[in-house]
User: What shape does this take?
Amino acid sequence: TQKQQTLARFFGSQ
Amino acid sequence: SIKDSVKLCNFNCSQSQGITVQAIDDSRVLLIALKIDAGSFQEFRCDKDLVLGLDLESLSKILKQGNNEEYLTLMAEDSPDNLMAVFEDKKKDRISEFSLKLMDIDSDVLTIDDMETDCTITLPAYEFAKIAKDMKTLSESLKIVVTKDSVKFNAEGQIGTGSVILKPHTDMDKPEESVKIELNSPVALTFGAKYLNDIVKATSLSSTVTIKLTDKSPALFEYKLPSGYLRYYLAPKFDD
Assistant: This one.
């Protein structure tokens, strides 16, 4: 089973 | 369309941008970016940039007070505590006024860089909604596999498996019925069916949805508005 990624891994915080 | 995904949202208002919203769901998997250009409104005036912190469930309750044919005017003062909503029928012999309490919402904003895209798919919004809803009954994950000849939606669950394959075609009479695939490189990505079902709640807003996919990156689902857009960025599932 694949793991759900979160957006923080891809997008930077402002 | 978005109130099942996010509860509290800051609505940013400015004369040049109109209304923009960025909101992230609690699980940090789905990001919603809404833009309603000033030109979408019969009249739009914003003397000073404003942030309106709104509870979407509450906003929804207020908006349901109006009838579809009525004019809606939304008003806020500088440094407002409340958002005013006024409904008027065309003859202006029925006027209803509501005031909605605003909130201070502490939300962090993510920076979304222009993404390289492996492929872009455009298909009828209702078609995508049906696939997302149907496949969720089979599995909690939906795999999207795109090649130059087709886009395949694949679900594997306890009771069995299912797939829907769409091939690109152009409908000259009804362009919104067309399926378009622009491909730089083939891609196979898996998404949570629950989130896809949140996304398709926007189906009534646009006749088509555009999906941009890139290997091991969040997908972009875009519903174009008459003047603006509703975009969803969804993080995929994959092995670390």
In short: The two ends of chain A are 32 Å apart (CA to CA). The interface with chain B takes residues 2-14 of chain A (CB under 8 Å). Strands of chain A lie at 3-4, 12-13.
